[in-house]
Structures are given as structure tokens and as C-alpha cells.
């Protein structure tokens, strides 16, 4: 849970900065990429906050909880940004947040499936 809290704290810290103080490169979509990457890290921290055995037995539930965390925290982050000068909430940011979570969950499910296949063939 500590890594998850640290990632959430980092996201909050960065969200609390006025828009002109972020100094993001002037590339189209760089802010969406930043959201996707930040929430991919949050999804990873959330997935691995669960006990390994619980992840193995209840993988679908773990994925649902992980994606819910990304969605709810993304919505709360956008709400928070609505109070910060130079920042504004965006549904596209929430979509990027959830996309980061989805990518991590899909990768985890894929690797989990390969691990099971290897274990069964032994």
C-alpha cells in the first residue's frame, strides 16, 4: 500500500502546481502521455498491493479494483485541478488515466497467463 500512496501523493503534488509552472515540452498530446504513464504506475502499484495468492485466485476482481482506483483517482484529480490556476479538468485526461490502467492490467493478465501455461507444462 505504501507504493500506491506514494504514487497518489506524487500525482496530487504535480496536479497542485499551476499550469504555467509545469514546463512540459511543447509537443501535441504530451500531457495525455504524462497522464497515461502516471496512471500506469498507479495501476502497477495497485495491482501489487494485493497479496500474490489473492492476485492468482481473484485476478478479475483485482483488475476491476485496480481500474476503479485509476478511474476514481483520475476523476478526483481532475476535480482538484479545477481549483488550480492555469489548470482545467478534462474528460480526455480521465480517459488517458484509465488507459494507463488498462494497459498495465492487460499486460499483467497476459504475463499471468503465460506463467500459468509454463507451470502447467512442467
Describe the SSE topology:
Elements: H1 2-15, H2 30-47, H3 52-57, H4 59-81, H5 91-121
Which features does this protein show?
122 residues
Provide a short characterization of the protein structure.
This protein is an all-alpha fold. The protein has helices at residues 2-15, 30-47, 52-57, 59-81, 91-121. The relative contact order is 0.17.
Roughly how many Å apart are the termini? 34 Å
Q: Count all strands and give the number.
A: 0
Task: Let me know the average pLDDT.
Answer: 90
Structural class: mainly alpha
Which strand-content bin applies to the residues?
A: under 5%
Low-confidence stretches: none
- Radius of gyration of CA atoms, rounded to a whole number: 16 Å
Count of individual helical segments = 5
Q: What are the secondary-structure elements, in order, as H or E?
A: HHHHH
**Tell me about the biggest sheet?**
none
Fraction of helical residues: over 70%
Q: Identify the overall geometry.
A: elongated
Total discrete domains = 1
Task: Walk me through this protein's architecture.
The chain is 75% helix and 0% strand. It has 122 residues and is mainly alpha-helical. The mean pLDDT is 90. Helix 2 crosses helix 4 and helix 4 runs antiparallel to helix 5. The radius of gyration is 16 Å and the shape is elongated. The chain is built from five helices and no strands. The chain has one domain.
Amino acid at each position: 500500500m505504501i507504493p500506491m500512496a506514494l504514487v497518489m501523493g506524487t500525482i496530487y503534488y504535480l496536479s497542485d502546481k499551476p499550469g504555467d509552472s509545469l514546463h512540459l515540452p511543447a509537443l501535441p498530446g504530451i500531457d495525455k502521455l504524462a497522464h497515461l504513464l502516471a496512471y500506469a504506475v498507479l495501476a502497477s502499484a495497485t495491482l501489487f498491493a494485493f497479496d500474490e495468492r489473492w492476485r492468482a485466485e481473484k485476478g478479475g476482481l483485482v483488475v476491476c479494483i485496480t481500474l476503479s482506483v485509476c478511474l476514481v483517482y483520475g476523476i478526483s484529480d481532475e476535480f482538484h485541478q479545477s481549483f488550480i490556476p492555469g489548470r482545467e479538468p478534462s474528460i480526455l485526461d480521465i480517459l488517458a488515466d484509465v488507459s494507463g490502467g488498462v494497459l498495465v492490467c492487460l499486460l499483467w493478465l497476459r504475463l499471468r497467463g503465460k506463467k500459468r501455461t509454463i507451470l502447467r507444462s512442467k
